[in-house]
Amino acid sequence: MWTQKAARGCATHSASPNKEPGCAGCQSDGAGIGVKACTGCKKVKYCSRVCQKQAWTRGHKNECTLLKDPSLPPLPSSVRAALQLASLMSSTSASEEDKAGILRLEAHDRSTIEQYSDIEQYEVTVASARDLFGRVSPDDPEAFKIRDYVGKILRNSLTLTTPTLDPMGIALDPIACSANHSCNPNASVLFDCPRILMRSLVPIKKDEEVFISYIDNTDPYYRRQAQLKTRYCFKCECSKCRLGPNQREDKWAQSPETLNTKLLNLAALAAARFPTDPADYIGDSKAEKDLSAVQGNIYRNYEGLRNLKDNAQAIKELENVMRICKDSGVWPITRQPYANVRVDLSARMLDEGRLGLALFQMAKTYFLIDPILYPQDFHPVRVLHTWGLAKTLVAAYSSGNDPSQEVDPGVEELFQREFDFVVPIWRILKKLSVDVVKSHGSGSNLTFMVHSLTQQVREGVGMENLREIERDPLHMWREFERWAHYLQY
Ligand SMILES: C[S@@+](CC[C@H](N)C(=O)[O-])C[C@H]1O[C@@H](n2cnc3c(N)ncnc32)[C@H](O)[C@@H]1O
């Protein structure tokens, strides 16, 4: 089952009455992809690429009816997911095999949820989903199974991401859901629409257990523990967690005692605004408590910014978050969420056409951060970041060679300094062509895109020239490495 956070409902269709609507999920025009109309409203359409799996379209039927009720507030994602699962299970178009797979999944219930607040949340979700389902399908016996469905979702759902790893909602797949969690996983789950891929990160022997990571395993220990407890109801005792809160993810650049005094006011402010969250715990000394308040503030700010539509505003605020990390004097650039904020900032800058600044941030991630957070060259996250960098280098190079395009001032300056973009483009793509097969498999969409671009560059530049470029007589690669140090934060 696939579900999505943001409900678009029938508004998408009515917003453009004269235009044949495209996909309400990914917003593509649907040309050449094929779109299917919702079986509920018969209007909103979803494409078979990103918003695939008919289940998604069927799930919309409930939302679509419910969203016509103006008295209803926006549905929480847990309620939405339960409604979609109930709707899927009662439909005739879901295969019996799919249904049997879902029915076999175990569910969490009051006995496995430990904290009172989480039980309360679970009961509210069950009651809301049952009530809403009853309004849409008054006589459907699936309503009585909603408690079990909520428990199944709580126990088994994985974060559904775009191919570039942006969270989109949740996914429930009987096979992917059979893997247990480790913060030091030997495999990863990737969404390569319409398929789910499970890829190994290290050699796995026959009969060895396959572990995936349900959460961002680059987060510090207490945050990982808190997330797994709240979302999946278990205490993680994986090989990394057994070593406690003193691994690389938890390290500070300097002792928390040296936290910049400017930030102490911020800490007091943050502590006053937010009750202590176990996810933010660092230690019991005054300095550690201050720092945990700052950390909580930073995580919450960042999470709030992820869905901000206004790019310019988001860039301003993300830069602010990064400045706080930098000014703290204790935050290493590899400690979360500093590292993730940088990646989001680069993506936002790209959307705004600020190629030069985005390139410098991406170079920092490429040279100084990713090799530490993701030690394997072919780690899927690292491969995706590298792919973003390669595409941005190509875009910068093309913009400077196309008189019809406005060149970003940062890129213009690089051209003036006679930087040869082709050196890093070729070196990165050549290696990426190999790594992407290991990370995503030879048949994945990403592999196809990486190989196509590599081929274009090979044909465009010519093998003879590329051999000279590989020799790099003017030391362009060394110059490129320096970019990682250009920006202050
Ligand atoms: C997707 S299921 C994994 C399959 C699970 N073994 C089962 O049979 O349902 C996720 C659930 O398995 C349990 N689980 C997964 N990894 C675990 C771990 N490392 N330690 C303890 N429980 C774990 C948790 O209850 C979690 O909600």
TrEMBL record:
GO molecular function: zinc ion binding
Record's protein name: Uncharacterized protein
Gene3D superfamilies, per the entry: 1.10.220.160, 6.10.140.2220, SET domain
Top-level taxon in the UniProt lineage: Eukaryota
GO cellular component, one term: nucleus
Residue ranges occupied by any MYND-type domain in the UniProt entry: 23-64
Organism: Aureobasidium subglaciale (strain EXF-2481) (Aureobasidium pullulans var. subglaciale)
Xref: Pfam families: SET, zf-MYND
The SET domain, residue ranges: 21-215
The entry's keywords: Metal-binding, Zinc, Zinc-finger
Segments of this protein annotated with the region Disordered: 1-23
InterPro entries, A to Z: H3K4_H4K5_MeTrfase, SET_dom, SET_dom_sf, Znf_MYND
